[in-house]
Write a structure and sequence with these properties.
The chain contains one helix and three strands. Strand 1 (12-16), helix 1 and strand 2 form a beta-alpha-beta unit. By secondary structure, the chain is an alpha/beta fold. The model has no long low-confidence stretch (mean pLDDT 89). It has one helix spanning 22-30; strands spanning 12-16, 35-40, 54-58. It has one domain (4-58). The chain starts with 11 loop residues before the first strand and ends in a 6-residue tail after the last strand. InterPro entries: SAM-dependent_MTases_sf (IPR029063).
């Protein structure tokens, strides 16, 4: 309901806390034209291949 207006648009989505990346991949299936970004403190997250138009960044969001 909240994301339906973005389905056919070039939206950008940020997920904080990637974990295994499944929620980012689900968003990508629903929002096919979107660019999906994720951040996580775990350095292994940046080594994962989550697919096209999904980019991850590794840092601690609680630090300045």
């Amino acid at each position: 309901m909240y994301l339906s207006r973005y389905v056919n648009k070039n939206a950008s989505i940020l997920g904080i806390g990637v974990q295994n990346g499944e929620h980012l991949q689900i968003l990508k299936k629903y929002l096919k034209n979107a660019k999906i970004y994720g951040i996580d403190i775990d350095q292994n997250v940046c080594k994962m291949d989550l697919g096209k138009n999904i980019k991850t960044f590794c840092f601690d969001a609680t630090k300045e």
